[in-house]
Structure formats: C-alpha cells, structure tokens
Amino acid sequence: MRFLIDLKPLIAEIIAVGSEMLTPYGQDTYSLFLTGALNDLGISVAFKTIVGDNSRTTYCRRAVSAAGRADLILIMGGLGPRKMI
Q1: What are the φ/ψ torsions at residue 34 (nearest 5 degrees)?
Q2: Which among 4, 22, 44, 59 counts the fewest CB atoms within 10 Å?
Q3: What pLDDT, on a 0 to 100 scale, did the predictor assign at position 82?
Q4: Long-range contacts from 59-66, C-beta under 8 angstroms, 24+ separation
C-alpha cells in the first residue's frame, strides 16, 4: 500500500537579517521564539543563519542554499532602531 503523504518530519531553516545581530551587543531572541513555536508544531529547525543588512549577495546565496536542505525557510528581520533619539 502506498501513501500520498510523506510522514517524515519537516526540516526548517531560519535566516535572520540584521547587522546588529553580528555584534556582541545584539541578541537574536526572535529566532529562539520561532524555533520553539516550530518545535511545538513538530517541525525541526536544523539551521539558523545570520546575514548583515548590507549583504544582499550573501543573503541571496544563503536563501538558495537553504532551499536545497530545508523544507521550510523563514526569513526574518527588520527589527528597526533599538533606542529613541
């Protein structure tokens, strides 16, 4: 008997965009939240990547690489300013 549904668990990758997360002062807390939510749904996060804001070429390469190894790709960013002026 054959099944139409593949029952293997989904593999996800999170790509976080933000130069502030590449410094010792910024923390990538949102991907931790997303990882917990995905795990609750039975989706395993196998990879997390951080890409700087000004790295368009690197950003595109990471997205293409992710497409080859993950079933689900989440791209997050746009945290905005950290303090009021």
Answers
A1: -65, -40
A2: 4
A3: 52
A4: 59/15, 59/17, 62/15, 63/15, 66/13, 66/15
- Mean of the pLDDT values across residues 56-81? 81
Here the tokens at position 15 are 């790509």
Which amino acid makes up residue 25? Y
Radius of gyration of the chain (CA): 15
Residue in this structure with the two tokens 């990471």, named with its chain if needed? 62
Amino acid at 20: E
Distance CA 30, CA 11 (A): 18
Q: Which helix (H) or strand (E) holds 73?
A: strand 72-77
- To the nearest 5 percent, what fractions of the chain are helix, strand and coil? 35, 25, 40
